[in-house]
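sanity check this:
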Amino acid sequence: MKKTLSRPQQARRQFLHSVILGSTVVGGALLGFIPVQHAKAQPKLRPPGALAEDDFLASCIKCGQCVQVCPVQAIRLDDIQHGFSLGTPYLNARAQACDFSCDAVQCVLACPTGSLSHKVDKKEQVSMGFARLVDEARCLAVQGQGFKGVARSGDYQGLLRYQDKDRWQPFPVKDYPYDLPLCDLCVRQCPIEGAISLQPLEQSTGDKKRPVVHDKCVGCGVCEMICPQQPAVIVIEPRATGGQA
């Protein structure tokens, strides 16, 4: 019978795997066997409070502490194909959003080098990116449609904290059913008050509305993760600098 690893064990295994791969890449690159690239073509969705990308890559020591403390295992480590970015933390919001209600943002507190920082200017809060509606025509709210059932089904493993169930314990998204006259999942589950709202469509009849993202959005990815359409009609665009603006 195959032994199931706990999440901390999985995180440690991922970290050790990254260290081994990192040593291989560095050694191979120095010997000329592996062409290491800067891998900046596609901006990464970094954890909350990440520095500008160049500073982040220079300061992150790839220790994996942020991975181990994340309560929903949202943070992953770049693999060998990402060149100098190998071993650095990032998120795939569609697979698992950042649990921005995790109290003090534990990944920032765990970072030993300041690559993730609570320090922000007067305009910003610790943030990751910004949500954008990318396929308005398929949005259920824009179509005036409701939603009944679970947002994500099958073998989906994503977790979310539901205030009406347990403020402290993340719950499987695939086990949480809805029955909504008008789909508002992106608004309903957003952990940041005032970050997104439904606004009536201009010159429309009925209950058709459009999700509108506001400046308070921190790019946590809950809206992208919870969107019942496949692929999601709302996605997170990482900040161009990879961190705070």
